[in-house]
TrEMBL record:
Residues 14-265 form the Replicative helicase loading/DNA remodeling protein DnaB N-terminal winged helix domain. Residues 395-435 are annotated as: Disordered. It comes from Limosilactobacillus panis DSM 6035. Residues 399-409 have a biased composition (Basic residues). Pfam families: DnaB_2, WHD_DnaB. Signal peptide: none annotated. Residues 317-386 form the DnaB/C C-terminal domain. InterPro entries: DnaB/C_C, WHD_DnaB. This is Uncharacterized protein. Belongs to the DnaB/DnaD family.
């Protein structure tokens, strides 16, 4: 099990082409910089513009180039670029297609347009990540930017706009039967749908939530509309239905009894960034497929991994060393939940291994991806399986357990070739010089002293 290097996904020798979706003409650099960059990070941000620079008019497979060109341009490692590409795919800015022909494997990267600022704010996944990346104050400024051309107040207005057929006349036969020229044009120009972001499956009990807020002043249809947002927060922080109901009620606008998604995001982000928050117990998802020989400490670790959501578990590990969960680490955990779709308990074992067992200060994306990748290949599906995989790795390396029961990953000792003089017998080194040797040394010193006096 390779634990120190990620699989080379961004192969330098593979070919690539860059295309763009039909609505890419609407791409907005300002939106991409202000809204997407804080979520993506600098490497993914640079990769997107490097790919955009490769756009050519009506590309064909003969126009492919090697991915080594992108690697040299960005001066980044293949694991970094693989991670950056995954981020661009996750936020819906790139769709990746793979092909094979006589010249080998090639990839087609289709660039997507940016969402509007308002649509970005309305997206539950993207807005949550943006809020955590930039903080409450800057997030509010971006919300103002999204509404910069709208009325500050919302008066009651009546839409009196005219419809298309009120002003333009189109022959009835053309409406009934589409002209051949238009049909052909539509067949050649497919309208691409913007990638949908998903949060994966959720075990959240919606009937219980509705029952808990049934007698409270909140619109049920508002909660249904915010279903994805609530499930994302539930998966990321392990919020149970009872706690979720309290958070939902705090986000209700008293003026109209409507649920305010933006306010809800701020409340959750503020509460779960506090040090020492106690997460509610979650149901353990462990199978008996992994034959782990459990020690008392193993059982305690597995129970803790099952009882906490990933962010809260990591926060608990950080508290032991006086640290805190950074925004980048929250992104990494969100990636493991949404994209890799690891079980929460497995993610917690991974965090424990890196922070507690290896004594690292922070989670690093490349190292996390390397471990997650190897676990998926090994068929790890639950926390016992993850722990077994760690023990297998430790056994393969021939390491010993430390006195505290933690896995020892000691640096190999290097035996340097010592000079011959270091091997001289101790008695020989301590033997006193003879009178003849002393006279010879004194003569050499007197001669050297005389030379120095003559130089002056």
């Amino acid at each position: 099990m390779a634990m120190t290097a990620q699989e080379d996904e961004f192969n330098p020798q593979a070919g690539f082409l860059v295309t763009a979706a039909s609505d890419f003409v609407n791409f907005n650099d300002r939106v991409f910089t202000s809204f997407y960059q804080p979520v993506l990070g600098p490497t993914a941000f640079g990769l997107f513009y490097a790919l955009r620079a490769q756009l050519i008019f009506q590309p064909t497979l003969a126009d492919r180039r090697l991915q080594a060109n992108i690697i040299r341009q960005l001066n980044a490692g293949t694991s970094q670029l693989a991670r950056a590409l995954h981020r661009l795919e996750a936020v819906g800015m790139v769709q990746t297609y793979r092909g094979q022909d006589g010249q080998g494997t090639f990839f087609v990267y289709q660039l997507q347009t940016t969402l509007t600022p308002a649509a970005f704010i309305e997206d539950d996944l993207l807005s949550v990540l943006l809020l955590e990346a930039v903080g409450d104050s800057h997030f509010k400024q971006l919300v103002k930017e999204a509404r910069r051309y709208q009325l500050a107040s919302s008066p009651s207005l009546e839409n009196v706009s005219h419809h298309f057929l009120d002003e333009f006349h189109v022959a009835n036969k053309s409406l009934v039967k589409t002209p051949t020229t238009i049909k052909n044009a539509r067949e050649q120009t497919n309208v691409d749908q913007h990638p949908q972001l998903g949060a994966g499956q959720s075990d959240f009990d919606w009937p219980t939530l509705f029952q808990l807020v049934k007698k409270q002043p909140v619109m049920k249809k508002d909660l249904s509309a915010a279903r994805q947002l609530i499930e994302v927060e539930h998966q990321l922080y392990g919020i149970d239905e009872s706690t979720m109901a309290k958070l939902v009620l705090q986000a209700v606008d008293l003026a109209d009894n409507h649920f305010n998604p933006a306010k809800f995001k701020r409340i959750v982000a503020s509460r779960y960034q506090q040090v020492g928050h106690q997460a509610p117990p979650a149901t353990a998802n462990q199978s008996a497929s992994s034959p782990v020989k459990l020690t008392a400490k193993d059982r305690q670790l597995l129970q803790s991994a099952a009882d906490y959501a990933p962010v809260e578990f990591l926060q608990g590990l950080k508290e032991q060393t006086g640290g805190f969960v950074s925004a980048n680490e929250r992104h990494i955990l969100t990636h493991l939940v949404n994209d890799v779709k690891l079980d929460s308990a497995v993610i917690n074992i991974l965090s424990w291994y890196i922070i507690a067992d290896l004594d690292n200060a922070n989670l690093k994306a490349s190292f996390v991806d390397a471990i997650a990748n190897s676990w998926i290949k090994a068929g790890v599906k639950d926390a016992p399986g993850a722990l077994q995989e760690l023990k297998n790795f430790q056994e393969q390396r021939g390491k010993q357990r430390t006195s505290k029961g933690r896995f020892a990953y000691r640096r190999p000792q290097v035996e340097e070739q010592m000079p011959k003089w270091s091997k001289t017998d101790t008695q020989q080194l301590n033997k006193k010089a003879s009178p003849e040797a002393l006279k010879e040394v004194q003569a050499m010193l007197a001669k050297r002293k005389g030379r120095k006096g003559g130089d002056q």
